Amino acid sequence: MGTSHTRRGNTRQRIQDVALELFAEQGYEKTSLREIAERLEVTKAALYYHFKTKEDIIISLFEDLCRPIDELITWAEGQPRTLETKQELVRRYSESLRSSEALFRFMQENQATVRDLTIGQGFKERMLTLYGLLKEPDAELVDQVRCITALFSMHAGMFAMQNVVGDPEEKREAILRVATELVTAANPPSRRPARPDSAQTASP
Amino acid sequence: MGTSHTRRGNTRQRIQDVALELFAEQGYEKTSLREIAERLEVTKAALYYHFKTKEDIIISLFEDLCRPIDELITWAEGQPRTLETKQELVRRYSESLRSSEALFRFMQENQATVRDLTIGQGFKERMLTLYGLLKEPDAELVDQVRCITALFSMHAGMFAMQNVVGDPEEKREAILRVATELVTAANPPSRRPARPDSAQTASP
Amino acid sequence: MGTSHTRRGNTRQRIQDVALELFAEQGYEKTSLREIAERLEVTKAALYYHFKTKEDIIISLFEDLCRPIDELITWAEGQPRTLETKQELVRRYSESLRSSEALFRFMQENQATVRDLTIGQGFKERMLTLYGLLKEPDAELVDQVRCITALFSMHAGMFAMQNVVGDPEEKREAILRVATELVTAANPPSRRPARPDSAQTASP
Amino acid sequence: MGTSHTRRGNTRQRIQDVALELFAEQGYEKTSLREIAERLEVTKAALYYHFKTKEDIIISLFEDLCRPIDELITWAEGQPRTLETKQELVRRYSESLRSSEALFRFMQENQATVRDLTIGQGFKERMLTLYGLLKEPDAELVDQVRCITALFSMHAGMFAMQNVVGDPEEKREAILRVATELVTAANPPSRRPARPDSAQTASP
DNA sequence: TATGAATGAGGTTTCATTCAT
DNA sequence: CATGAATGAAACCTCATTCAT
């Protein structure tokens, strides 16, 4: 029982890992099943034992990714629609991104591919749902942009800042702070349920 | 003078147009030369008369795109490094995007492809240069994020807001406003060369 | 004793049934073991417990089919070579087809496959033997055609008449009648051992 | 200008010839494009220059085959619906089969394949049309069988008689004669428009 | 009696590219 | 300025088959 035959039921997992790695690195179309198989030291046919098609591999990755997002959405829908909730939503989202960095990078960099990938639609819907949870129903155009930018900046942030020096965790916190500011600015006091001690006038 | 013989010599341009359209719609890898040729009602071989390789087509598109950016960089480098310059830089950049929406969409959605496309590097460098022009040399991490987000939001904005109703030009202005705010926030008075008439206190 | 555990030991039979069904429906090559296994809700490997190869499955079907034919041949060879015997041979053959309709349909529609299937040769030989039992040794070319057509019509008849309305059993009888006529015509009185009461002259 | 580069525009034809040969010999599914290409000493990709898919090759063969049949149908539909017309129809059909022997053999032996080949339906319809031209509208079941058998015997005849010695043309004539007899028997005098000099009584 | 995991060979198809005309 | 014909490489996928458990 050496090293290579002991891998019991973890092949499926290993395929997902390698696939994600390569998809993120080179893109979905440019990554061939041969490549994945070679890196795993199995045959292409073995991949097809675990996944019915190439698309199936990526779908399985998406599913893993979407679960936490769905939970987040469920949570937010059960909360009062206050600024605090929105800020917390952004915070939690930022955190869940941390564990799925590669996949988010993949999606960010392969939107054209993702778009017609069936499941891509599902992801887009979730983004729209999050967006709907961040913005007020009657928000002005600028505030809509702020909310969208907040979400996008969290997605794009990590790899857009690869050339910026610094501790990854610090970067994430900086990104989170900017996103939070955007959301906060998009929910001005005048639009929030009035509070007696807030006497500010809305910015024009 | 029918419809099909009037196109004299403009074939090269037509190839670029159709290619960009398809690249933006489906991605670079998923768009085949056959498809481009068919839509133009010429043969694949005809494409090779005008472009040496498939990559050459995309390179030519990049070159057209980069020219205005280079001009913008040249202009900015000749200006004083004030907040006003930065705001104007953002404004001008936003405007030049307007005419190259498809190509920017393509780049935004096909980063993985663009990345190892030789010319992709060139584009990235230009982005870094713009970034360098927006941020102060000793900017804090948060302010770096603000500058990057400003740039990104302009790229991503247009198609991220496809499902938002409204006049495109109004949207662009909203995006520009948010980007400007981000840049402004990233260049707080305390960091700018002090001016006698600015009495604001820096935000902590 | 649920539904799925009652099948004790009859798996082999069930494989044959499903395989025949699919072979007849789609052809041998186009039917994969995966398909058979799925329809049976077992794994492909289970098929290999019961049959050594895919061809083995079809061979086993042929063997079941050939047994009655062999009995028929044995019977016919023990009879006097009269027209009555031939007519009875056709009648009995028609009857034995009834219970193997699917397999005959398969053979009729997949001759190209059957041809190089080892056992296919065996079937062809049996057909030639039957043919030899129907025709007179010195039969004219036309009479040879009649005999061959008689056999073929019985094979092809059933599914060639799928779009003809009517009771299956009635159809079979009609086919049998035509086949009998052909055999009768192929064995004219002049060639049969003369009988005192038959005064017909041979047809030109 | 040797032998191998002079083949100007005949490649398409050569593909059809070789494909038909191999399809008839081994069946459609068992014949790979590699095989066809190798026999032609071209690459597989060359086949795809001339035909969009493997199925396309066979479709083109069918089209060539169907043309004469369609002409025959058109002709027959313009004739009076007499026994003589039907006999002539059979005669002409037999003749047109002569030049398409391989394709008919292919169809006869690969019905399962042909069945779901789109164009297969078209062929079946033509057969039904021919059948409808041979039989009287209110024909009895037995007469319907006779007409079907007449058609089938012509299809199957040639290769079913491969082991029968004799001149091919003589064989064809013998088959034609049997087919004609079947059609004649299927159109008894009592069912034909009465003619003053035909005093026969109908057979029961 | 059956399964889970894997393989090797081969299938059809598509692609970017070339070159004589 | 463009085409018709072809190529070589590689893509995704399927199949029959094996074997340890």
TrEMBL record, chains A, B, C, D:
The keyword DNA-binding belongs to this UniProt entry's keyword annotation: yes
DNA-binding region: 32-51
Domain HTH tetR-type: 9-69
Alphabetized Pfam families for the sequence: TetR_N
Disordered, as annotated region: 185-204
Top-level division of the source organism's lineage: Bacteria
Keywords: DNA-binding
SUPFAM superfamilies in alphabetical order: Homeodomain-like
Matching PANTHER family: ACREF/ENVCD OPERON REPRESSOR-RELATED, ACREF_ENVCD OPERON REPRESSOR-RELATED
Listed name of the protein: TetR family transcriptional regulator
Organism: Streptomyces albospinus
Organism lineage string: Bacteria, Bacillati, Actinomycetota, Actinomycetes, Kitasatosporales
